[in-house]
Amino acid sequence: MSKFIFVTGGVTSSLGKGIIAASLAKLLQARGLRVTIQKFDPYINVDPGTLNPYEHGECYVTEDGAETDLDLGHYERFLNIHTTQANNVTTGRVYQTVINKEREGAYLGKTVQVVPHITDEIKRRMLLLGKSEDYDIIITEIGGTVGDIESLPFIEALRQLQWELPDEDTVVVHLTLIPYLRAAKELKTKPTQHSVRMLSQEGVHPDIIVCRTERPLSPELRRKIALFCNVKQEAVIESADAPTIYEVPLTMMREQLDVIVMKKMNITPKQEPELGKWKEFLDKLKYPKSQVTIGLIGKYIELQDAYKSILEAFVHAGALNECKVQVVNFHSEFITEDNVKEKLNGIDGLLVAPGFGLRGVEGKIIAVKYARENQLPFFGICLGMQMAVIEYARNVLGWKDAHSTEMNKETPYPVIDLMEAQKDVTMMGGTMRLGAYQCEIEKDTLAYKIYENTQISERHRHRWEFNNQYLADFQKAGMKASGKNPDTGLVEIVELPAHPFFIGVQYHPELKSTVESPAPIFVGFIKAAKEYNQKNGQNSAATAKTTI
Fold first, then answer.
1. Contacts with 497 (C-beta within 8 Å, 6 or more apart), sequence order
2. Which of 1, 50, 171, 359 has CA atoms 20 to 30 A from the CA of 231?
3. Per the residue annotation, which of 67, 76, 465, 510 is the catalytic one?
4. Residue 119 Rama label (left phi>0; alpha psi -120 to 50; beta)
5. Nearest alpha-carbon partner for 61 in 45, 50, 72, 77
6. What pLDDT, in 10s, does the model give residues 341-370?
7. pLDDT of amino acid 427
8. Is 510 one of the annotated active-site residues of the chain?
9. Three-state SS string across 459-484, please?
């Protein structure tokens, strides 16, 4: 049986439970332990697949096709491992399981209640990964904050597990806030004290308290927190704001978070932390030799988390290229033929982001046209690839009314059409083409130059596809389908051989990009942007715009 670490949060959301969980997991992994992380979310949605990105950030898709919380992206990027459906559980999924069992008569006529039936199902799922021999430690992040009514069943399940499992098999890490009051010129511990007291009232006592803070914690302040929260002083961990999330594992190592956890769990590490590659990545990230500015055309740019995996993939690719990547956001709704040149002036590459729906589509098409005609490195992901196809149909093939049937069901040229398997689908949740699929790449193409392989596997999340009825017309006009699914013939990659770097992909390469294995297509895109910058003699730092 594995050992279990639970990460809870208090005072406020967005403190970074996912980053702390991933950082601790990275340190334990670096010591030779087999670790994975799971996230329990308190919302009643079965998964985040039907949520607007403004509600909950991006929807992260795993290899096995699960639509999950964006924190699973952090887990994979830090640990360089794949997560699965079992790594993300919502209240909705728990209740759905219990209600289905009740309908089947599995409870033998008993009254179905939150305790024990809901909490038993939560515990079952918390322990599920631990029954595998693949892991020494399972880290469970509990979403929300202590005191939220939605989180109470999770906290109760945790209380029961603490009672049921041996003391050395569980550790509770509580993340909280130490605010700095500028008027008083001091850090305040009262919110942390209240948060720990509230957690204790539910029967769960933290073993370690991680304190998010803008200012360093003095020994006196640590002693005060330890005294009033009933933990050892060494178990009060400072988590100061960092320039990049990738520095947090090293910060936690200096604070000896992993050492304290292993001591409490009676674990003997297999080795000293091996973080050579991680430190090399950080050195390249902190000391770049060049800089490029990438324009990101999207429709959810007001919320940074809506394109979280894309932004992190730029970080990984930039470090490998020893190049600082400055991303400038452009709202596609506000791009027109009249202002596109002015808005995109000064960028070294253009990425058209994924999305759904009609809003902002015409602005994306105009931006694609600008990149194509001005030899600007272009990269389209999912809907971005589809916009490139529509733009080419309209402005090169001359089909002025070409469109996707997602936006215009009556278009005479449906160059993007609903996938055949999707035409009878009525339930929206969890029914898209999801997860990893194979792609065959033609040799002597830009895609082959990027991947250096004819066989790749990438993750998907879409309903619409390139309409192969028009493939011959596109190929004849100069747009090449350089990658296809070997089983269905679905076009996965389009490119323009006559352009220095113009590529669109139906899949989401950002989802597999990690610190140790950056996504090849992002690496190639940043390399092309560097070459464009050098060729055109641009000074990205001087010409870059603010978010638009």
1. 445, 446, 478, 480
2. 1
3. 510
4. alpha
5. 72
6. 999 999 999 999 998 777 889 999 999 999
7. 61
8. yes
9. EEEECEEECHHHHHHHHHHCCEEEEE
What residues pair up with 90 in beta bridges, in sequence order? 41
Please write the tens of the pLDDT for every residue from 435-478.
999 999 999 999 999 999 999 999 999 888 999 999 999 999 99
Residue with tokens 């007291």: 197
Identified catalytic residue from 174, 382, 391, 495:
382
Burial class for 448, CB neighbours closer than 10 Å (0-12, 13-18, 19+) = middle
Are 85 and 464 within 8 A, CB to CB? no
The predicted model gives 52-70 an average pLDDT of 85
Burial track 131-155 (b if 16+ CB lie within 10 A, e otherwise): eeeebbbbbbbbbbbbbeeebbbbb
Distance, in Å, from the CA atom of 316 to the CA atom of 309, rounded to the nearest integer, reads 10
CA atoms of 66 and 129, how far apart (whole Å): 16
Identify whether the C-beta of residue 11 lies closer than 8 Å to the C-beta of residue 191: yes
ω before 219 within 30° of 0 (cis)? no
What is the rounded CA–CA span in Å between residue 191 and residue 197? 10
Which pTM does this prediction carry?
Answer: 0.92
> Is 382 in the active site?
yes
Give CA angle at 408 (463, 328), nearest 5°.
Answer: 70
Structure tokens at 395: 């402005």
CA-nearest of 310, 304, 251 to 521 is: 310
* CB burial of residue 442 (10 Å; 0-12, 13-18, 19+): middle
Distance (Å, whole) CA 172 – CA 155? 11
For residues 119 and 162, what is the distance between their CA atoms, to the nearest angstrom? 13
Burial class of residue 117 in the structure, from the number of CB atoms within 10 Å of its CB (0-12 exposed, 13-18 middle, 19+ buried): buried
* Residue in the structure block whose two tokens are 């990547």: 325
Structure-block tokens of residue 176 = 């909280």
In this prediction, residue 133 carries a pLDDT of 76
* Residue 361: DSSP 8-state: H
β-strand partners of 67: 61
